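Collaborator request, handled under Task 6.
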Amino acid sequence: MTQKAKTYMLPTAMIAGSVAGYFFPQPTAHWATVLAPILIFAMLLVTYCKISIKELNIRPLHIGLLAIQIVGGLVVFGALYFWDPIIAEGTFICLFCPTATAAPVITGMLGGSVSTLVSYSLMSNMAVALLSPVIFSFMGIHAEISFIDSFLIICSKVLPLLILPLVVALLLQKFFPRIHHTLKNRQALSFYMWAVSLFLVVGKAVTFIIEQGWESVPFEIAIALLSLVACVGQFYLGRKIGGRYGDKISGAQGLGQKNTVLAIWMALTYLAPITSIGPASYIIWQNSINSYQLYLKEKRDRHL
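Structure tokens returned to the collaborator:
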């Protein structure tokens, strides 16, 4: 598939998902519930197969980015909570969500350090896997049951989804190197799985949004606009932090480019479902920023 075709594939998946969610709400929501976790697992597995543990190292840049992602997300949630808890959740998930599996690819295209982004992508996903059960439980998810029960329910779904792909990738590398090598050299698979999962989760989000009626429109607009602020803010802060360590591009992409498919799934599963408007809108904002950055990079290269 050509690069131009890939450029149009994700927007097409979003539009198609919106249409499916509007006209075929029940089957779209059903298959999103069934297939989205499987696709997220598979995408992470393919991505982790290209990671060499020996090349991974924690840098000061990673710590700074992770602090914004976790601590910054909680601070923003706390600040917005007194305005409206739902809006606070919708903005929080846009910050707390881990780095996108495609972030190293965009980083390489822009001239940043791919190895830095691969290391941070792993750290970012592991941090979310370990902390999300605690954070989501404290936010009152499954409020009708105890904190411990809520914590265990979320652990049982999130930990296997985010950590098990790494374990499987390491086992394949050790015991089934041919399979590992095949997945390592088929990174395009994650792109196609990303498109399918985007179709499903956007469809499910649209289905839920339509069910809410017009009275929810002010919430939806507020969440969408705050997701724009979160997106621009994270690209900006990531670039500033990266600049301190001589890698503005990796800093911006590590903090700003999010695994929005995972974020939408988490919002629909553990937060008030309407908060999925946040990461759904974030898809548009981050792709717009990246498209503009790639345009500027291509323009500069032409004049060299």
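The cover message to the collaborator said: "The two ends are 28 Å apart (CA to CA). The chain has a mean pLDDT of 83. Please let us know whether this matches your experimental observations."
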